[in-house]
């Protein structure tokens, strides 16, 4: 009986037990936060590339001479995750329009989810 009471009062090792309980949640939240940040960066980079290419088509006519060179210029301006975005250029009622699309594969624990990313920019 005295040994059992001594066992319940002993506080050695509680920090290790607490760490074992908290560490998995901390690691999952940290890696999940990193994934969300990289997704946001890819979306922002895709928007920037589309906007810069639309401006290039309107202003830098020696660099972005046709649809192919404008799409190639946009491809060089994209700096996000390697999703191989597809850029297209057209002249629409609002002037020079560049659209972009790509698919980001997120490796979640039970499955891999594909997240479609799109961007569109128009420069008068």
Q: Quick recap of the structure?
A:
Helices cover 52% and strands 26% of the residues.
Residue runs with pLDDT of under 50 for 5 or more positions: none
Rough shape? rod-shaped
Radius of gyration: 25 Å
Q: What summary fits the major beta sheet?
A: 3 strands, antiparallel
Structure description:
The chain has 124 residues and is α+β, with helices and mostly antiparallel strands. The termini are far apart. Helix 2 packs antiparallel against helix 3. The chain has a three-stranded antiparallel sheet. Helices cover 52% and strands 26% of the residues.
Secondary structure elements and pairings:
Layout lengths: L1 H8 L4 H46 L7 H11 L8 E7 L2 E13 L4 E12 L1
Antiparallel strand pairs: 1-2, 2-3
Helix pairs in contact: 2-3
Q: What keyword list fits this structure?
A:
52% helix, 3 helices, alpha+beta, three-stranded antiparallel beta sheet, single chain, 124 residues, rod-shaped
